[in-house]
Amino acid sequence: MKYANVAPSPAQMREILGLHLQWVESAAQEGEKAELQGANLNRAELQGACLRGANLSEATLSGARLQEADLRDALLQRSKLYQANFRNANLDNADLNGASMQNAVLHGATLQGADLAPADLELADLKTSNLSGAQLLEANLRGANFKDAVLIGADLRRAKLKDANLLNADLKGANLQGADLRGANLQSAKLQGANLQSAKLQKADLVQANLSDAKLIKARMQETDLYKVDLENADLRGADLRNAVGFTAKNLEVAIVDKKTKIRD
Fold first, then answer.
1. Per-residue pLDDT of the chain in tens (265 residues, 90 and over written 9)
2. Which DSSP letter does residue 180 get?
3. Which of 123, 175, 181, 232 is close enough to 254 for a disulfide, judged by CB 3.0 to 4.6 Å?
């Protein structure tokens, strides 16, 4: 760990990035892979940098500027990325396991297949980002903004999404089993075929959301707003909808319910 707890000089960073670009473009035949494990890169100016496959595990990049950077397949485990700016960056298949990303900006970033379990993204800005197939198991996503984000097939089991903004987010086929979505904004969210078994949805806003074919077995939906929600073939067996608003008996006619489905006190 040559740069552990060390802040490389601007000249050193230029050399590191230049050699790494050669390494990437030559398929590891020339240049040198960037090994920045544990480095101090706080507020580093890395806009548009090629860091594909680089080792940035345990590095500190708080406040760093990484807009449009190429971080595909990069190693960022346990890195500190507080308020880092990844706007429109490419983090596909990056390893962000255990990363601290509170208040980070990931607006328009792509994180398809990225490992974010169990990263801390509290209050992060992920508007219009693409996290299809991403691993977010038990991630802290409280208050995060996923407006218009794509999370198709993402693994969000037991994720903490309390008060998160998922307005118009695409969560088709996502696994949200046991997730905490209390107070979340899921207006117009696309949840077709999603697994919400045992999810906490109390006081969530699901106005005009599409829950067709979704699994909501034993989901807690007390005081949830279900106005104009699509529940066609949604599995509500054992779900608790007491004090939920905006839905009618007609809505439930197309859903799957049983004697354990709680609708009224």
1. 688 888 999 999 999 999 999 999 999 999 999 999 999 999 999 999 999 999 999 999 999 999 999 999 999 999 999 999 999 999 999 999 999 999 999 999 999 999 999 999 999 999 999 999 999 999 999 999 999 999 999 999 999 999 999 999 999 999 999 999 999 999 999 999 999 999 999 999 999 999 999 999 999 999 999 999 999 999 999 999 999 999 887 788 999 999 999 997 6
2. B
3. 232
Whole-model pTM: value is 0.95
Residue 181, sorted as left (phi over 0), alpha (psi -120 to 50) or beta, turns out to be: alpha
List the structure tokens of 168. 């118009």
CB 258 within 8 A of CB 237: yes
Quote the tokens at residue 134. 């991403």
Q: How many CA atoms lie within 13 A of 191 on its CB side?
A: 31
Closest CA to 94 of 127, 129, 63, 62: 129
Burial class (CB in 10 A: 0-12, 13-18, 19+), 6: middle
Under 8 Å between Cβ of 131 and 152: no
